[in-house]
């Protein structure tokens, strides 16, 4: 019984580290899609558009990781691999959704996200990221 507890704790640590790594990759994605440094935009300039987009991205990735773990294979290695695969797939698809939305709308979405004043395009882009995450999570389940 104690061994099961330690194995479960170890799996939690590994899955947690993978989830944090995927969320960090999501941060890098948003940083690449928006001009300037995301850290500066959100934490120094207090840009609500960038914060909204990053928040939707982080929550979306968390939903994907949650679903992948919840529906995981019984074998730890397979479950971990599927979590990484679906997490990366979600990040790539969120980036693609951003680029498609940018092509379909006027202006440059990255620049709009960086504007000081709240902009409706930030809400649409955030919804797009979150929607993609829900689609990927549904594919996992």
Attribute tags:
141 residues, mainly alpha, 6 helices, elongated
Structure summary:
By secondary structure, this protein is mostly helical. It has one domain. It has helices at 2-33, 38-44, 48-70, 76-104, 109-113, 120-140.
Task: Describe what you observe in this structure.
The protein has one domain (2-140). Helices cover 83% and strands 0% of the residues. The protein is built from six helices and no strands. The protein has helices at 2-33, 38-44, 48-70, 76-104, 109-113, 120-140. The longest helix is centred in the N-terminal third of the chain and has 32 residues, at 2-33. This is DUF350 domain-containing protein. It is a multi-pass membrane protein.
How are the secondary structure elements laid out?
Blueprint: H1 2-33, H2 38-44, H3 48-70, H4 76-104, H5 109-113, H6 120-140
Helix pairs in contact: 1-3, 1-4, 3-4, 3-6, 4-6
Q: Bin the helical content.
A: over 70%
Straight-line distance between termini: 30 Å
What is the radius of gyration computed over CA atoms, rounded to a whole number of angstroms? 17 Å
**Count of discrete structural domains:** 1
Please outline the major beta sheet. Answer: none
Question: Shape, please?
Answer: elongated
Mean pLDDT: 95
* DSSP strand content: under 5%
SSE topology string = HHHHHH
- Strand elements, count: 0
Derived structural class: mainly alpha
Tally of individual helices:
6
Unreliable runs: none
């Amino acid at each position: 019984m104690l061994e099961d507890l330690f194995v479960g704790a170890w799996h939690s640590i590994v899955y947690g580290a993978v989830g944090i790594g995927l969320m960090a990759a999501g941060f890098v994605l948003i940083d690449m899609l928006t001009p300037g440094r995301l850290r500066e935009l959100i934490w120094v300039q207090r840009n609500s558009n960038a914060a909204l987009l990053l928040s939707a991205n982080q929550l979306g990735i968390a939903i994907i990781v949650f679903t992948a773990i919840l529906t995981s294979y019984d074998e730890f290695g397979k479950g971990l691999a599927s979590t990484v695969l679906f997490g990366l797939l979600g990040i790539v698809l969120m980036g693609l959704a951003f680029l498609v939305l940018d092509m379909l709308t006027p202006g440059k979405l990255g620049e709009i996200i960086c504007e000081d004043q709240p902009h409706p395009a930030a809400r649409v882009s955030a919804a797009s990221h979150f929607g993609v995450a829900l689609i990927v999570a549904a594919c996992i389940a």
